[in-house]
Structure formats: C-alpha cells, structure tokens
Specification:
- The chain is of the alpha/beta class.
- It is globular, with a radius of gyration of 19 Å.
- The N and C termini lie far apart (48 Å).
- The relative contact order is 0.13.
C-alpha cells in the first residue's frame, strides 16, 4: 500500500458507491471519504454502511447536512433543530460518528433571510458546534458552492469551523475565488484548513479541457497530462491544502495522485488571478 496522502479526499457526489472503488482508494493511499446526507437520493449513508461498513474504520469520513427530503424536491434549511437531528441521523445510518460534518451550502437559505442572515448563520453554526461538543462528530465545517453571501457575516462572535470547503480550479470565477479567500481569512483559516471541490467543474471531458493548456501554470508542464495539470493547479485557485475529487474509476484516481508531484508556478497563478479580476471589472487586460 502506498503512503497515505492527506491532500486528496475521495468525494462521493455522483458516485455509484461501489466497494471496489473504496478498496482501490485504500490501496492507492487515499484514506479520506467525503459524502453528504443528500447524495445518492438521500441514501448515501445507508448504502455506504451496507456495502462497505467494514472498510469505513479505515477512512476519515466527512459528510454534510442542510438538505432535507420532501415529497417533491430537496429542501434546504438552516434550522438548528433540523441540523442537529440530521447529524444524529447520520451517526445512525453510518454506524459511526463522522470525523467532520459540513454545513452544506448555507448561502441557499441565507439569501432569503434578509436582515437576519447573520443570526441565521450563527445559530446554524452553533448547532453543529454543539453536535461536535456532544461527541456526535469529530468536528464541523462549512461547505459552500458560492461563499459570496457569507462575506461580511463572520465576526469573532460566530462559532469557528475546523474546515472551509469551496469550489476550486480554473473554471471558478474571480468573484467566487475572492469570496473564498475573504471567508477563510475572516474565520482565521489557513490554506491547510481549506478544502477545494469540483476541480474540473464536474466533467473532465468537457470541451473546455481540450481548448486550454493548464500546463502553463506548472514549472514542469511536460511531465503531466492536461487533466493532471488542471488538478494540480486547482490547489492554488483558491489556495487549498486538500482537494475533494469524485470518480468511480480507480485509474483516474491514481492519475490524479500522480499529479501531486507537479510544481505549480505561483507567479503564473497570481498573474492569472489579476487578469481575470481586471476583466471582471471591465479593465484592460
């Protein structure tokens, strides 16, 4: 078995939750899993426990709460009682306490909270803080697809998460990148406590990856494929210490692990961010 690399988390969004993937991940040295209460049609926890319950002790496990099933659609809520109950339910379904529970996309509810948005966020964070204090999870974090609504809401009176998870990579817009940096800074989280997700925008086969060369952001761009170069660069857009990436193919996971040996040209990344920021403001490139 290869040395475990804490910088990669196997994400189960859109995953088939097959046992072979989890055993292959362990063989590759990937010992962290990330799922959510609403993945796989709100069945992710139960399926994981059923098909790989004996493997779960070998992983650090994170999940997310914030979405709830209704007869017609998934409903988002930051109601403290519902969040706390969701953590309790996750423990029952998984057969173990998660190492980390994320508050899932809080911006979905905050956008309708009006003048009370800061209080709504504070109470939701406090619910997860209490769950961790009671031993229902090892810690808690915030996972946000668009952290922009969180900017300006965070102060010393707000409970502090252990981890912030945000979108990362070349397809993330400058507003989202800047907001991620601002939220991490407001919570006092260094890059080692920020996770990236969706480094390919959900699809490594999208036409965009055939039109751009992410290798320009690497110091040794001839060693890695375009997919590998895009993955390695995503750790700097924004700066994160861990990347959650989803796949059902062990070979693909192995290729991404191989990309970690690449060295990113940080100056090129800074110039790129300056460029897209200027373009967003309508300034000359």
């Amino acid at each position: 078995m290869r040395r475990a690399d804490p910088r990669v988390v196997l994400g189960l969004h859109r995953s088939r939750h097959e046992r072979r993937l989890l055993t292959s991940a362990l063989d590759l040295g990937v010992t962290a899993l990330d799922t959510s209460s609403n993945y796989l049609g709100f069945r992710s926890h139960e399926v994981l426990a059923r098909v790989a319950g004996d493997l779960l002790p070998n992983f650090t496990l994170s999940t997310k709460v914030g979405y709830f099933p209704t007869p017609d659609r998934a409903e988002h809520s930051l109601a403290p009682a519902r969040l706390f109950a969701a953590v309790e339910q996750a423990v029952k379904e998984l057969g173990r306490e998660p190492d980390l529970v994320f508050l899932h996309n809080p911006e979905h509810t905050l956008e309708g909270a009006g003048a009370h948005e800061r209080d709504v966020l504070a109470h939701a964070c406090a619910a997860l803080d209490i769950a961790a204090a009671k031993g229902l999870c090892g810690g808690w974090g915030v996972a946000s697809w668009d952290p922009s609504p969180l900017v300006g809401l965070i102060d010393v009176g707000l409970p502090q998460p252990s981890v912030l998870m945000v979108r990362a990579g070349l397809l993330v817009g400058t507003g989202t990148l800047d907001a991620a940096d601002a939220v991490a800074a407001a919570w006092g989280l260094g890059s080692d406590r920020v996770w990236g997700m969706s480094p390919f925008g959900g699809n490594t086969c999208a036409p965009v990856w055939g039109r751009i060369n992410p290798g320009v952001f690497l110091e040794d761009d001839d060693r890695l494929s375009r997919t590998q170069a895009a993955f390695r660069t995503a750790y700097y857009l924004p700066r994160v210490g861990t990347m959650a990436v989803g796949t059902d193919e062990p070979d693909h996971l192995g290729q991404l692990l191989g990309a970690l040996a690449g060295q990113v040209d940080e100056r090129a990344v800074r110039e790129y961010r300056d460029l897209i920021r200027a373009r967003a403001r309508g300034q000359p490139a």
